[in-house]
Design goal:
- The structure is a single chain.
- This protein is mainly alpha-helical.
- The protein has four domains: about 90 residues; about 70 residues, 2-Layer Sandwich (Ribosomal Protein L30, Chain: A), CATH 3.30.1390; about 90 residues, no CATH class; about 30 residues.
- Helices cover about 70% and strands about 5% of the residues.
- The chain is extended.
Length: about 350
């Protein structure tokens, strides 16, 4: 029982106290622990968590495929994608460069090199001749397999040049442009992510329609702010005149007058009076599209985004900070025991 309950709680409490109060104590040993050791431990634990998460993903998707549950073909695709990513990252290097160190006859070498860099032979020969003497020419796009790079080296050597194959170091191959992993990221993962985010806009619009139903004053403000921000951030919003928005404001205020006083005369006076005032002001000012600026949608949405939105976001961040602090104290004091299965 001690090894399963008291010891883990004692370790969590000790490390938690050191990490938390290390930010407030000017002690070199403790500060070194907080800045270096604790951070490295976190990275190690996070790596194991990612590893376990990947195994759990494979387990859940594999069970779905084996039991032929609804949507199992998508689960099979997810497993195949995971396998391909794992292979490209840890098993197949997928990044072999070919370097031409000598080319006495550029025209002859260009007959082989042209098809590899997608240029005609004349342009390729001009590139080789323009290279400074003694500088090797490196084919920028790497080859996915060592066999493919070796074949190109043999062809160039047979054409009178001197070429050699150079493999990219492990780890660097992930960020090397044109490598197998980089190709997968650019041409598979990135387009799929862009597609998902494009579809997300429609899901957000659908959810907004359901959430923005006018049930009370707060929901009305949320609806109006959402519409202003969505219109103000698209090109059509800049073409909507501020005076058109003013007319809408007059009608909205008139609707409020009718709701508050329930008097047709007051409502009629507010509508006619407001329309006349806006129309006269428009003729005097010459109906500029972006004036008055406070009713111009791009300016209005910018103000909403940078002021009320920032204030709300800061309040949420303060709440998140307090929640993190409260949860940390619960872990340190041994009140929260979910990490030991309780």
């Amino acid at each position: 029982m001690f090894m399963k309950r008291q010891l883990p709680i004692a370790i969590a409490a000790t490390i938690g106290f050191l990490t938390l109060f290390g930010w407030f104590v000017d002690e070199p040993v403790i500060k070194s622990f907080v800045d270096d050791d604790a951070t490295q431990w976190f990275d190690i634990l996070a790596s194991f968590a990612m590893f376990l998460g990947a195994l759990n993903l494979l387990k859940m998707q594999s069970l779905k495929v084996i039991k032929r549950k609804k949507g199992w073909p998508y689960a099979a695709l997810a497993i195949a994608g995971f396998a391909f990513s794992f292979t490209a990252g840890f098993i197949l290097l997928g990044s072999y460069n070919v370097e031409i160190s000598q080319y006495d006859d550029p025209a002859q070498v260009a007959t082989v090199l042209a098809s590899e860099i997608n240029l005609d032979e004349k342009s390729t020969a001009n590139i080789l001749m323009a290279m400074p003497e003694g500088d090797p020419y490196l084919i920028e796009t790497p080859y996915f397999t060592k066999v493919g790079a070796d074949k190109v080296v043999e062809k160039i050597n047979a054409a009178g040049g001197t070429a050699n194959m150079r493999a990219t170091e492990w780890g660097a191959h992930i960020a090397t442009r044109g490598s197998l992993f980089n190709w997968m990221f650019r041409f598979i993962f990135t387009p799929l992510s862009a597609t998902m985010f494009a579809l997300l806009a429609f899901f957000v619009a659908s959810a907004s329609y359901r959430a923005f139903k006018i049930r009370n004053f707060e929901a009305t403000l949320l609806l109006i702010s959402g519409i202003i921000i969505m219109l103000g951030r698209v090109p059509i919003g800049g073409n909507i005149s501020a005076w058109f928005i003013l007319y809408i404001v007059v009608l909205a205020l008139s609707a409020g007058v009718n709701t508050w006083f329930k008097n047709r005369v007051y409502t009629l006076v507010s509508v006619v009076g407001g329309v006349l005032i806006v129309t006269i002001a428009g003729f005097i000012m010459g109906w500029p599209v972006d004036q008055p600026a406070i009713f111009y949608l791009p300016v209005l949405q910018d103000w909403i985004y940078n002021n009320p939105n920032v204030a709300g976001a800061r309040a949420i961040m303060i709440g998140i900070g307090l929640g993190i602090f409260a949860t940390s104290i619960r872990y340190i004091l041994g009140i929260e025991k979910s990490y030991i299965g309780e």
